[in-house]
Design goal:
Elements (H helix, E strand, L loop, with lengths): L4 E10 L4 E6 L2 E6 L17 E5 L2 E6 L1 H29 L1
Antiparallel strand pairs: 1-2, 1-4, 2-3, 4-5
């Protein structure tokens, strides 16, 4: 299963190579934005956009509400996973 993580583009780091800095959960990473730019949406206009990031690429633009809901769901999934691991460990002790 492939998973895109929501992040917000905070700056363009290399205009020529279409690279941008995306903040994902407080962590900033450089990603390629070639998949989300075209004649109508230049790299510079991407600053502030919410995107789904997968393997170093911004795969698509999403709206802020969708991004925040996805982050909430991923957080909940992580919390459930942590609880399941704790339960498994307590059963083996």
């Amino acid at each position: 299963m492939c998973l895109g993580i929501p992040g917000q583009i905070v700056e363009i780091s290399n205009l020529e190579h279409k690279l941008a800095i995306v903040e994902v959960g407080g962590v900033r990473r450089e990603v390629n934005i070639v998949c989300i730019v075209d004649e109508d949406h230049s790299p510079v206009s991407c600053v502030g956009d919410w995107v789904l990031v997968h393997v170093g690429f911004a795969m698509s633009r999403i709206d802020e509400q969708e991004a925040k809901r996805t982050i909430e769901l991923l957080t909940e999934m992580g919390e459930v996973q942590t609880k399941l691991q704790a339960m498994r460990q307590s059963n083996t002790s």
